[in-house]
Amino acid sequence: MANSQLSRPGQARLEIHGRPGQVWGSLMMPAGGKATMRIVGDTLHTSTKTAYGLEKKETQTRIQSIDSVEVVEGRLWWLLGLGFSTLLFWGLGLVFLVLFFVLKQNWMVVHTPGAPLILFYKKAENVQDFCTNLLNRSRQLNAPALPRQQPAAPATRPVSPRPVPTAG
After folding, report:
1. Which domains does the chain have, with CATH numbers?
2. For this UniProt entry, which segments traverse the membrane (predicted)?
């Protein structure tokens, strides 16, 4: 189920679903399995289960530590590299080259100080709402706290000097 969905209708998007991604060098690649990103309080919970249940991973990231969120639609460049490297085997190389021009992927990258969190998805409108909600929470949590103001002192009236009695 690589679709994005709303956790509760009529409220802000707090959860999205898709496939996990991984980084090889500078390439983002989809991995087999399921991934869920959920906003819970001041943390972003990411649950990943790889294909066949071989590996499960739970990541909890403080929303205050999120640097940026990237939403990408693009080609899978590793298919182009694979196509050129196997071009000597005409059938196989051409298949990869055709797939490079036909297939498009959508993914979201949450940049954190540790490692990027990657989620490949299908429905872009749900992810935009989720990203907006995530960044709004980050702004709220990173906003400087307003200093407490001292209560205002009671207003005093100026005292006029007393008239000096004159003799006379």
Report:
1. 15-140 (2.30.29)
2. 76-103
CA angle (65, 22, 122) in 5-degree steps:
90
Query: In which residue ranges of the chain is pLDDT below 70?
Result: 1-12, 146-165, 167-168
Report the phi/psi class of residue 159: left, alpha or beta, with left for phi > 0 and alpha for psi in -120 to 50: beta
Q: Where are the beta strands (DSSP E) in the chain?
A: 15-24, 27-30, 33-40, 43-50, 56-62, 68-74, 105-111, 117-121
Distance between the two ends of the chain, CA-based, in angstroms?
Answer: 105
Label the pairing between strands 43-50 and 117-121: unpaired
The pLDDT score that the predictor gives to residue 7 is 40
Question: What is the pLDDT at residue 16?
Answer: 93
Q: What is the pTM of this model?
A: 0.70
